[in-house]
Amino acid sequence: MGENDIDSTNSELSSKLLFYPKRRVVSIIEKHILILATTKDFVWKFEQENVRILQQMGYVVHYAANLREPEYISNETELQKMGVLIHHIEIARSPFILQDNWQALQELLNLMKQYPIQAIHCHTPVGGVLGRLAGRLSHYRRIHIIYTAHGFHFYRGAPLTNRLLYYQAERFLARYTDVLIVINSEDYESALKLPIKKGGRIYRIPGAGLDLERFRPPTQEERQYWRKQLNIDTDTFFLVSAGELNENKNHRIVLEALKKLRERSDGQINIRYGICGDGFFRQRLEEWIKNMKLEDVVTLYGYCTNMPEILGGADAAVFPSKREGLGMAGLEALAMGIPVIASDNRGTREYMRHGKNGYLCRHDDSESFLKGIEMIRRMNPKQREEMSVCCRASAEPFSKANTIRIMREIYASIDQPAEEMELWKKK
């Protein structure tokens, strides 16, 4: 069907069609939902399963984000193949870029005039603010609001300014939230204290959910093959980190630990450290690696789509983030039976068991990371095998199947019959 035409031969369908503003055609029997985030690649990285669930429920799925944000993998074509309608808005990552975010709010309101959107599922702090405000300010219909908090910024130990600003903002916006989703125990306890909308619900999910078939312990043959592909010698201790290259991911602390280890070993360490990911900290990381004389130890792999193969060749994973809502990178390593040397934060506390499936460290203490690396290096084969079994077991509760089950329940709770869209039709 053309954008400006209605097939006159289909009179039954024609009677159920309504023109959007700008002469777009929409069927009032369709259900529309908007996924909102700040970055272009968010849906591709974290929301593919949710898109499939919604489409199975009969929804037309829209995605709004800042399409000018840097992306490390091209996914727009793939999203279009999935049937997702993509919209650019001037949303900024920082809540303090007021002009862009004010414009983004106006663009969201305009989207709700053009399309009969009946629910918004918003992500990221700024997405959570603008999505809930847009739902509140829309006068065209009742908008159900779902907000997934991937990690409240007012966590225990957060700077006082975070608690004053982000907590008060979340407390205010909770009254406009139909469903609040969190991904760790600490945030769940905080969420229960918020004045959520009357009749609203709070859920805790195991993050985006682990694909336990894709992330599984490798066979010995697979491990040897993958190490060979990466040019890792049999007797080399191989460490892997995964995540966006930014300040929070805290890769520098691992570099400092490796520098100390080299200095204490008269310059000889048989270790390789691979960092998977990209971001605006890449140049700074390259400078640190050069200044610490670790060029022969550290490799920046960039954004990787073959993480099971890279992790499958690793002896240990390092997850040094200062803060995490949960941390899928750590869970993916554990699911493959790879021990994790992780910062102690509210996310990693959900699954890390110190000395059982790896080691917990202070995020600002390179000595503790050095100790964790050395403890795993010195394990004998039997100890490694026992730890590998514990790693896999600790990841299993975070399976994708559990997340999908809860998300189906959440989406069903806000599902709205087409008849309830009559208000929008009259507008």
Summary?
This protein has 427 residues and is α/β, with parallel strands linked by helices.
Uncertain parts: 1-24, 418-427
Would you tell me the overall average pLDDT? 89
What topology, given as strand order, has the largest sheet?
5-4-3-6-7-8-9
Question: Approximately how much beta-strand content do the residues carry?
Answer: 15-25%
Q: What's the CATH topology label of the largest domain?
A: Rossmann fold
| Overall geometric form | elongated
* Major beta sheet summary: 7 strands, parallel
Count of helical regions = 16
Please tell me the CATH architecture of the largest domain by its name: 3-Layer(aba) Sandwich
| First-residue to last-residue Cα separation | 24 Å
Oligomer: single chain
Tell me the number of structural domains. Answer: 2
Radius of gyration: 24 Å
The CATH class of the largest domain, by name, is: Alpha Beta
Instruction: Name the CATH homologous superfamily of the largest domain.
Output: Glycogen Phosphorylase B
User: Considering DSSP H and I runs of 4 or more, what fraction of the residues is helical?
Assistant: 25-40%
What class do helices, strands and sheet pairing give?
alpha/beta
Number of strands: 15
Characterization of the model:
There is one protein chain. With 427 residues, the protein is an alpha/beta fold. It has 2 domains: 215 residues, Glycogen Phosphorylase B (Rossmann fold); 178 residues, Glycogen Phosphorylase B (Rossmann fold). The chain has 16 helices and 15 strands. Strands 5-4-3-6-7-8-9 form a 7-stranded parallel β-sheet, sandwiched between helices. β6, α5 and β7 form a beta-alpha-beta unit. The two termini are 24 Å apart.
